[in-house]
Design brief:
Mean pLDDT: 80
Number of helices: 0
Low-confidence stretches: none
Distance between the termini: 42 Å
Shape: elongated
Radius of gyration: 23 Å
Number of strands: 23
Largest sheet: 6 strands, antiparallel
Length: 313
């Protein structure tokens, strides 16, 4: 942003020049997303107000033009991605507060069912190689330290990602008597809490997800409750005593064409808590470029996905 303008800058030799993105000449406007196609076209998704976003485009030869307007809640989140054939997809949380709105290129908007509740933050990626069917995938915070994945299409497949857990604690029980309740016993539960995340598509059409996970140890103690309100007489449950972040890691994994789990996951230890870092992901051919911001430095890792054993996903 320069003053009240949003500008796109290019470099020729040692000289930089900036083009004003059309329509983005208001201090209240914001750049919601940017992406480029293999043929050099550039796309910018600009929030024109709290309920509309506009897709602007710049041809590889230069010159911006304003395109499709999308009626979405820009305060919550919008997303932009370009598929392997150069078609832009823009998506947002609908103003009805209950669904996603998707526009592919100049096609008419399509509405898909969304979550019952929504948290800010949205990332979109398009599965499918050049010339093949495409499947837009939307990632957003899913609550309880999980990611929610919406693979938009027919059928619409939704699932949670991450949040691996293990526990030495017994399950909650109700009964007439609780003689087996080990009152005072200590137990531990371990879970991954997901922080920042990003997605990108390699040339074979596979969507890859990168997210930051903090392993959290929750220490609990077993308690017995005798409450006349309970119809069965007693309850044996655990009470949390302390919660400690043990370690942080970068997790990178591919997704199936419909968002299904592939069974492949790579985990890279980090030196700091994932609450304090950010992640970005870009694909170039079969290679993934992963950037992790660890407060005082930015690490860049290249993963050659062609070296990973193939599975039928």
């Amino acid at each position: 942003r320069t003053g009240s303008d949003l500008r796109y800058f290019t470099r020729a030799g040692n000289m930089w020049s900036g083009d004003v993105i059309p329509g983005a000449v208001n201090d209240d406007l914001s750049l919601e997303g940017a992406a480029s196609s293999r043929d050099g076209n550039v796309y910018a998704l600009v929030a024109s107000d709290v309920s509309h976003a506009t897709l602007d485009s710049r041809a590889s030869s230069g010159g911006w033009s304003s395109g499709t307007s999308l009626a979405v809640d820009t305060v919550s989140a919008t997303g932009l991605a370009v598929d392997a054939d150069g078609l832009p997809y823009m998506i947002g949380w609908g103003t009805d507060g209950a669904s996603f709105v998707l526009v592919a290129g100049n096609a008419s908007p399509v509405t898909f069912g969304g979550p019952s509740s929504y948290e800010n933050g949205l990332t979109v990626a398009i599965a499918g190689a050049s010339g093949k069917p495409k499947s837009p995938m939307v990632f957003l915070p899913g609550g309880n330290a999980l990611l929610a994945l919406y693979a938009l299409g027919s059928p619409n497949k939704n699932r949670s990602i991450g949040g691996a857990t293990s526990s030495t604690c017994s399950a909650f029980t109700l009964g007439f008597t609780c003689d087996d309740c080990q009152v005072g016993a200590q137990c531990d539960s371990y879970s991954d809490q997901i922080g920042a995340f990003a997605a990108a598509t390699t040339d074979d059409g596979t969507v890859w997800l990168a997210y930051l996970a903090t392993s959290v140890d929750t220490q609990s103690v077993v308690e017995l409750h005798n409450d006349p309100i309970l119809p069965l007489g007693c309850a044996c449950d655990t009470s949390t005593q302390s919660t400690t972040a043990q370690s942080a890691a970068l997790v990178v994994e591919p997704l199936g064409a419909s968002g299904q789990d592939t069974g492949i996951s790579m985990r890279f230890p980090l030196s700091t808590s994932s609450d304090a870092v950010g992640v970005a992901l870009a694909a170039n051919g079969a290679k993934l470029h992963v950037f992790v911001n660890e407060i005082s430095k930015i690490d860049h890792t290249v993963i050659d996905t062609s070296k990973i054993p193939k599975r039928p996903f």
